[in-house]
Amino acid sequence: MLQYINPARSEWASLIERNIPDDEHITRSVADIIAAVRQEGDAALRRFALEFDHTDISQLEVSEEEMAKAAELVSPQVKEAIAVAKDHISRFHREQMPRTVDIETEAGVRCCQRAVPIQRVGLYVPGGRAPLFSTVLMLALPARIAGCPEIVLCTPQGAGGHIAPEILYAAQVCGVHHVFRIGGAQAVAAMAYGTESIPRVDKIFGPGNRFVTYAKQQVSRVCAIDMPAGPSEVLVMADATANPAFVAADMLSQAEHGPDSQAMLVCNDEAFAKKVEAEVKAQTARLSRADLVEQSLSHSRILVFPSREEMCEFSNAYAPEHLIIQTERPWELAVKVTAAGSVFVGPYSPESAGDYASGTNHTLPTGAWARSFSGVNLDSYFRKITFQELTREGLSSLAPTIVAMAEAEGLQAHAEAVRVRTQNN
User: Fold this and answer.
1) Is the pTM of this model over 0.70?
2) Rounded CA gap, 80 and 77, in Å?
């Protein structure tokens, strides 16, 4: 990892950059995949599955029989873990249920807002190196709580023709209506435009590799998406009171996601930084994914600032997906956070807790999008519709205001729509 001691603010712009090259080849490839799915439907999905995932697909939708068999393959320990995580995630998200607004802004002028669930949502769950069945819980449970009538899930089938049984079991437990054995940009295209087998959805959720991310961004012209999301990332703010082993473990828990992931340490003690670096090396040697971790660490960074205030300012500039605060009096820094996907406060709050079972959602903005996007929450599954009802008296009272504003904007018909109701009546 590269180390920077008290970097000047003029250097911050380069230090907050992610390892996400602007790859025109991927952009063009994704556009070609989307076009093929739009034109050829299921046939394109089968061809791409053979080409990219080396698997032959006859039936795109996972059958109820396969779902039942998958449940038998999941260990009792994992089933119990899923049950606990489901309970915590459900409890936290139920508390986010939006309230109905119904007020009179003045006598005879009633304004309301009602939250309506999105009718059909599409969930993307990665397979590949790590079959993320926890993502099923994070995406499907809020959809069920919000009351979305139809939940569609796409996940890639492996070369052996199988999907991780934990993914299928979690989908069953969470009440997913349809599971399709397709992944990559082609799955995103299928959910956005629809095929013979896969219904067109109203909004797409879920993380993925660069192909999936680029596909979500390209289809966002016709289908809503949860957020732009790319490789996972973490920033740890720590001081000399922190345990270097804890800090190193938190950094590695993100680095192991893949070679594009990024782990950042921001601290105020150079000696502590060296202890963390030594711990990172020692712990990496014990990991089964050491090769991926080392690639990730090659573009990760350690930064040492003279004060806690500058540590927090840099963190807000970086806007991490995951922010972990392991300092003395951590809440003093936590309340100053203005840009982060999810914040983990104190030495016993590892990012892993939020990834799996504390209750918060782990689908979060990356690549500094935390400056303007929230992570997935219950609001993500609703549309909020406003209503208004004016009585004759209410419109008469408000008419001078409306007419004055409409005429000032040069919109005569707007003013006349009021006058026709209030004059000579």
Assistant:
1) yes
2) 5
